[in-house]
Amino acid sequence: MDTLVIVLRVALSLGVVLALMWVLHRRVSKGQLGRPKARGRRAASVEVVGRTGIGGKASVVVVDVEGERLVLGVSEHGVALLTSGQAPAPEPELAIVTSADRFRAELEQQDDPAAILPVGAADTTEVTAPLPMRPRNRRPQRTVVPTSRQLQGSILSADTWRQAAAALRDRRAG
Predict the structure, then answer these.
(1) Residue 10 CA, distance from chain mean position
(2) I need a labelling partner for 32 at 20 to 30 A (CA). Which of 48, 94, 126, 141 fits?
(3) 128-137 burial, b for 16+ CB within 10 Å, e for fewer?
(4) For the residues of the chain, what is the DSSP string, one character each?
């Protein structure tokens, strides 16, 4: 009975320690721990516009900082300002059509028989029924159990474990 209590205490303690480690990892990875929020000059947003390697460990980087565009030369010895200027105004973003809007438009098009049928065919009184939809690649899933021959030599094979146990027994006996 005492052994069971000790095992439960150890398991509970391990669970608490692992939970604390997980919480600390999440906080540190998000930058919420140990660093106050940046204010003033440090809070400036930096956006890398482009980077081009010009050889070895040297490259030219174009960066936008607080509405100013900087062209920097970066090498293993340091960073040098090549030129600076006014950043271009951001382009207005286009309205993004959601998939729901596209789906609605397709449904409206499918409801209109003139849009489905070729020109002249909509005049006839006969309208063919649409073809039935069938799902693609919907085969019944089978669970395949590997045979002992397929597992031969792998760590999942029972023969591999038997051979390992026999080798350990022989080593102890010798």
Answers:
(1) 36
(2) 48
(3) eeeeeeeeee
(4) -HHHHHHHHHHHHHHHHHHHHHHHHHHHHHT-SS-PPP-GGGG--EEEEEEEEEETTEEEEEEEETTEEEEEEEETTEEEEEEEEEPPPPPPPPPPPPHHHHHHHHHHHHH-HHHHSPTTGGGSS--PPPPPP--SS-PPP-PPPPPTTTTTTSTT-HHHHHHHHHHHHHHHH-
Distant-in-sequence contacts of 2-6, Cβ < 8 A, 24+ apart: none
The secondary structure of 30-67, three-state, reads HCCCCCCCCCHHHHCCEEEEEEEEEECCEEEEEEEECC
User: What are 48-91's pLDDT values in tens digits?
Assistant: 888 998 888 899 999 988 888 999 999 999 999 998 888 777 66
Report how far residue 72's alpha carbon sits from residue 63's, in angstroms, rounded to the nearest whole number. 8
For 140-174, the pLDDT digits (tens) are 666 677 777 777 778 888 888 888 888 888 887 76
